[in-house]
Predict the structure.
Amino acid sequence: MSTGMHLTKIGFGSAAEASWVEIDASALLHNVGVFRQLARREDDDVRLGVVLKGDAYGHGLLPVLSSVHEHVDCVYVITAQDALAIRHFEREAHLAARDVLVLGAVSATEAVLLAEAGVAWVVGDATLPAVITALRAASAPRLQVHLHVDTGLSREGFLPHELVPLWQLVRSAEDVLHCKGVLSHFANVEDVTDQAYARQQVARFEQGVQTLAQLGAPRLERHMAASAASLVLPSSRFDTLRVGIGLYGLWPSSETRLSARVVLGETPQLRPVLSWRCRSQVIRTLEQGAYVGYGCTYRCTEPTRIAVFPVGYFDGYPRLSSGRAHVLVGGRRCAVIGRVMMNHIIVDVTHADIGDASSVLATLIGSDGEEQVGADVVASWADTISYEIVTRIGAHVPRRAV
Ligand SMILES: *Cc1c(COP(=O)(O)O)cnc(C)c1O
């Protein structure tokens, strides 16, 4: 075990220094403020919850948590393991326990641990009977649960009519369960500017909430809106927002950005939290006619000064961006030439103002001077979305708070 950890350290040691991610804590707090503003209401404010799944969208669970913990009302994760890591962090840092909710699948054993840790769990699949049995066998404290209504995403959750037997089961297990909330999740708010389908989902959600009330459920916390709906569909805000991508300063989509301006009268200014930088390994000048990289897909039409950076698709820089990507060097856009490789990219720095430097810094995501490369732009080169770009930056790439 200790040998394995040592080898891991050596294995990643040099690569870890090759590129790194910077996390801007002030940008995180700024974005919390933007959603707090949206959550403001004349009577009582909507609660602000943040989604830290996927290692806080690749930003690093603990760095992000330590910045936002005291500024949000609740935290959502997918796994029981992450929820327990949050409880551990709170104990170590002598912080009060926040509301933490596990959105994903858990085993019966994990459910017992969640009950003991005072973490809530979303019931969205058929594990509940096994969970109830395990909770009783362990004489665990009551597990807080929220019920997931499937209103049209067809992922987890129960259709409105399936809530009747579900509620009977929950009520029959009141010795070990405490039902606190009801939720749903949208299918396509960020993909469209016409929210007809989302409004249908809201109507089904309200029908589900009403069904539960008719069955005698107490007043439950209702939550449905992720980032996009929080921004562009005020009727979906209910009691709590579940903000993921927006916390990290990224827009769910360009459609959402356009709609937000229409709905809110102005475009909220989100500040990107993550920058990804890399220091070059080699700088040299290639002759006219030289081929660059695997497949000889690029050929220099003139003498070309190149910088080789020790970062590639192993680290999460998408190979599909080959032939389209640029990075920032010295505040200028410089093309990535040839193919993105496993551990390298090659950048044309002929027109960057680098003098005779033996090493330069590249910004793969983030800003340098006046120029900016957004995660959404990198995503467009790779036919994907910013969510995938940031969550796929390798876990071995160090995250540093700045
Ligand atoms: C991921 C997720 C969110 C957050 O979505 P964003 O678009 O990143 O804001 C909210 N709720 C559920 C259930 C999710 O899975």
